[in-house]
Amino acid sequence: MLQNPGEGHPGCWQLGESVEDFIKRLPPVTTSGLLYEWIWVHNPYQKGHCEPQFSKVDEFTIRGQELLMKNLQMRKAIEANDQNKTKDTVTRRLNEESELLQQRITDLAVQTNVLSGKWMLFLSLEELTRVWRLIVDGVINNRLGPVAKVAPEQGKPGERLICIYTKDFRDKDDIRRVLQELVSMGVTGTGKNTIHYKSDPYTCLNIYRQTAAQYGLKASLYSSQELLAEGEQEYDVLYPLTQSNLNRFLNNAPQ
């Protein structure tokens, strides 16, 4: 049975609504941000992608901010106390502290069930409707993740953001699967604009490109080029083995 978490909400896609009807009702280029902060589309095959659980976002944010403050204090102490040590030693200790912070944020995210993440597409107004149409079709036909959203008109020029979610930022295979679907749609891929995957915990803690470095973190977990390159490397490793086995079979086959 199909279920739509956005059913009855006017800023969301509705069951039985075609992609074109949805786009006409809420055109992403012109729909006012005064009406809706975001325009949403949910996967109606929800059980296949996202088990509904309560996320303690407020608790995560409060405790997460405490982790960030402690990290800054520790980094300052390392730099102050290690002035007579080599630069490599200080860098190593700072990196260790960053790795601890990453793990602590992840552990807290698991405790509070703040686990989702998203691929982010920044698009020109000329490209926005075409790409949003593809994303909507992918979500409602169970090809992508549990939900996607697009930023409406905010009275500002420039690019607009589309977010395509996955249910768990720890699940690299699912993150890669959604990326491959976006590649098959022509939204991204080798030689095209790089897109990035960001966890919702980092968004809740306002860890962006401008602020991440002070904690020794990266604002995003993955880039599309990184994951696509990894996939190509895995293929390059597996293919020669497969070909070798095939050659051995052919050479030993009876004539």
TrEMBL record:
Recorded superkingdom: Eukaryota
InterPro entries, A to Z: Bles03, TIF_eIF4e-like
Coiled coil: none
Pfam family membership, one: Bles03
SUPFAM superfamilies named in the record: eIF4e-like
Family under the similarity heading: Belongs to the UPF0696 family.
Name of this chain's protein: DUF1917-domain-containing protein
Originating species: Bimuria novae-zelandiae CBS 107.79
